[in-house]
Design goal:
The complex is a heterodimer of chains A (about 240) and B (about 220).
Chain A: H1 2-23, H2 30-64, H3 67-82, H4 85-95, H5 105-130, H6 134-142, H7 147-177, H8 189-200, H9 203-239
Helix pairs in contact in A: 1-9, 2-3, 2-5, 2-8, 2-9, 3-5, 4-5, 5-7, 6-7, 7-9, 8-9
Chain B: H1 5-46, H2 49-63, H3 67-77, H4 87-112, H5 116-124, H6 129-159, H7 171-182, H8 186-219
The chains are: A mainly alpha (about 240), B mainly alpha (about 220).
């Protein structure tokens, strides 16, 4: 397992780095970076939850909704995939208040990232549902199930398993996109990096450590998704008639 | 009034000029990504272990860390080692490097799809590795992956606003400056969004045309 050994090596390097760091007088900026990392993790979790919700609603609406709902879903997906995440963030942060809708920066951050990644996720949902073999649909018709029943009990449980690997990639994209929120004054990891850099001038150490922090969070996501995938696939194999 | 058309018309030339900088960054960044990505893919697939193993780790590292931090790294950390870069150069380099790692995965898929027989034939014809790649492998590996590369071109284009964080005067930075000078953010930021949407939709359409044409050629 090349990946496994890579992960182990990275974790060893990371802990080793932390030990060295704490002895080398990095105390002045490490606590600040850790606080920032906590906010980054919070935004990542919030954004991922929202993204999954948006993706299922928009993806299923695009496939099965009546035409006004379908067009709404297509509009949402195209707009959020067609423009830049940073532009969306600034739009929600600077433009929406002019229309009388002011939100906390943290809310704006989670909302933007969730909606942005959700638009990409909608296509993942659509692809996975479309990839369920036709025979499964035909069987639900033969069993006299309604379409909602068929989706909920037969189609989605199979589609979800196929979605897990692409969702892992999207979650990492979302993690990376959280760095943008530093530009709307949220003290996340990227923001703290700039702040600590401006006060301590330990440029090389700070930005290297920050990169490793992001890598460590990404690896946690990768390993978590691999675990989820194993469990989900096992459930599917057990249920299948042989 | 939420939306002032006169003001929008007034700032349009400024944004049009800034969009040239955005396009420039996109094209230069993608040129780097396309060339470096191919080098990464070949090094990773056919290079000796001392090259392919660190390269794989490096690619994974770049792919799992934020582009914004990489831009900061190149812009702020490189000068510590004596390499001072202009904001635009640093930004284009970061964009190119980041997307080279994505492009390398695409190239890898293209190269992996070449049949073994093509390699064997090249050996039988006594071609050097250089000529095998240049005349046999690459011309077959590239056309099927053009649409996938095109998607990354659009993705790279949409990441160029990040260069505003180090002060490059591209679309986003120009819109922000207009906003802070006039206290009107609605028009500039909405227009930037619209410009990105229009460019992305045009690019997506072009990719679809190229894809259709490539598919037709491969059927013949």
């Amino acid at each position: 397992m090349a990946l496994r050994s890579l992960v182990v090596a990275a974790i060893v390097a990371f802990t080793g780095g932390l030990v060295v760091a704490s002895f080398a007088g990095f105390r002045e900026f490490l606590p600040g970076l850790l606080e920032g990392a906590l906010i980054t993790v919070q935004i990542t979790i919030g954004g991922c939850a929202l993204a999954v919700a948006c993706a299922f609603v928009a993806g299923l609406a695009k496939m099965y909704g009546p035409w006004p709902v379908r067009w709404l879903a297509v509009g949402y997906i195209e707009v959020f995939r067609g423009t830049s995440a940073l532009v969306q963030l600034f739009w929600l942060f600077f433009v929406l208040p002019r229309f009388g809708l002011t939100m906390e920066p943290l809310t704006v951050a989670i909302l933007t990232l969730g909606l942005n990644v959700g638009a990409y996720g909608a296509e993942v949902v659509r692809g996975a549902v479309a990839a369920v073999p036709r025979g499964q649909w035909e069987a639900t018709v033969a069993l006299n199930m309604s379409r909602a029943q068929a989706l909920r009990r037969i189609i989605l449980p199979q589609a979800v398993v196929a979605m897990i690997p692409p969702w892992g990639n999207l979650f990492i994209e979302l993690l990376k996109a959280t760095a943008l929120v530093s530009l709307i004054t949220i003290p996340d990891l990227a923001f703290r990096a700039q702040q600590m850099n401006a006060t301590t001038y330990r440029t090389v150490e700070i930005f290297s450590i920050v990169l490793v922090f992001y890598l460590a969070i990404a690896m946690v996501i990768t390993i978590a998704m691999q675990t989820v995938e194993r469990f989900a696939a096992r459930g599917l194999a057990r249920g299948r008639a042989t | 009034m939420f939306w002032d058309w006169a003001f929008a018309g007034e700032i349009l030339p400024l944004l049009a000029r800034a969009s040239l900088v955005t396009l420039q960054a996109t094209i230069l960044g993608f040129a780097i990504a396309a060339v470096l990505g191919l080098a990464f893919a070949i090094g990773r697939m056919y290079g000796p272990a001392w090259l392919s193993v660190p390269l794989t780790g490096f690619i994974e590292f770049i792919r799992s860390t934020p582009l914004l931090i990489q831009i900061f790294f190149i812009y702020f950390v490189f000068p510590e080692f004596g390499l001072v870069l202009e904001a635009m150069t640093a930004g284009v380099l970061a964009l190119g490097l980041h997307y080279a790692t994505y492009a390398s995965e695409v190239y890898r898929a293209g190269l992996a799809n070449i049949q073994r027989g093509q390699w064997e034939a090249s050996i039988a014809l006594n071609l050097t590795p250089y000529h095998t790649f240049r005349d046999v492998i690459i011309p077959q590996a590239i056309p099927p992956i053009v649409p996938a590369l095109g998607n990354y071109l659009v993705a790279l284009f949409k990441e160029t606003p990040l260069l505003s964080a180090i002060g490059v005067l591209e679309l986003m930075q120009t819109a922000k400056i207009i906003g802070s000078e006039t206290f009107r953010y609605v028009e500039p930021i909405t227009m930037v969004g619209a410009i990105f949407l229009i460019f992305s939709l045009i690019a997506a359409g072009l990719i679809r045309i190229v894809e259709a044409r490539l598919n037709r050629r491969m059927v013949h």
